[in-house]
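Good morning N.,

You mentioned wanting to compare the apo and holo forms, so I went ahead and generated the holo version with flavin-adenine dinucleotide. This is what I fed in:
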Amino acid sequence: METFKKLPDTSFVVLEFQSTFGGTAYMQEVIDDNGIAKHVRYNQHIDTASWDSKESKWTLEAHDLKTGEKKIFSGNFLWMCQGYYRHTKAYTPEWPGMSDYKGLLIHPQHWPTDLDYAGKEVIVIGSGATAATTWIHEIVRRKIAHDQPAFTKICIESPEQVKKDLIAGVAAHLPEGFHVEKNFTPSYRPWQQRVAFIPDGDLFKSFADGRSGKELKGDIIASATGFNLVMFGDIVFTVDGEVVDWHKTITYRSVFTRYDE
Ligand SMILES: Cc1cc2nc3c(=O)[nH]c(=O)nc-3n(C[C@H](O)[C@H](O)[C@H](O)COP(=O)(O)OP(=O)(O)OC[C@H]3O[C@@H](n4cnc5c(N)ncnc54)[C@H](O)[C@@H]3O)c2cc1C
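and this is what came out, ligand included:
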């Protein structure tokens, strides 16, 4: 926004195919404080992006997901903020017998906001970022965000000590004789891959009460199995009429350049 304040004659638009903003709980505040809402157009799916070298201009073809109307946008500068995963289709593996399951199978990426899971048996598949934080409370989320810089610093300064402490913390939540070395000892240092925070160690309670590794019955299965990676929001890019083949490009300092074999 600061950039645009310095360029009063410049107009900009933010195009988003979802019907509202996503992201974190603080996003509404950021939008309000900076007066961004009037620049955002929701339900706009970008299908193609074409660069014209002679005109130094991008032309985007979009369609309105509500009305189906085709729209054209053009500009000199295209800032891609499409993220790295397919928002419309989460990654769910095929499990044998899946079609026989009569309960609810939900991927957190498409979590129904009105889901009532009170008193239900819920099984979470996965052990990574989504699974660990599926039911994390907002207050806990804020505390983690607040403490994170200090924790990251100590991970960089004393990785081996932090690794030892984390594993000891996990072991303390697990039953006697649980194979911590085999199941909970990563080959990498803390923050070389992300550290998942498990408030109150609730994930470990299911190991401690012996439910792990057996047949589990559940009314709801939350498949926290990850996402599908996608390049540039599935948008077809062309440069002077030629479709860009990303396999034939390299990126250097955030700039894509074509190379010819
Ligand atoms: C399971 C999971 C857990 C995570 N947990 C955390 C966490 O706890 N803390 C943290 O800091 N980060 C977390 N992240 C990472 C964080 O979500 C991303 O780094 C962040 O969302 C990236 O922001 P972005 O704006 O680049 O992309 P996104 O948030 O992905 O936004 C991209 C937007 O572009 C839109 N879009 C895409 N293609 C098109 C198109 N063709 N036309 C129109 N619109 C389009 C999408 O609808 C989307 O709204 C997590 C990620 C995942 C997957």
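The two ends are 41 Å apart (CA to CA).

Happy to go through it together on a call whenever suits you.

Best,
F.
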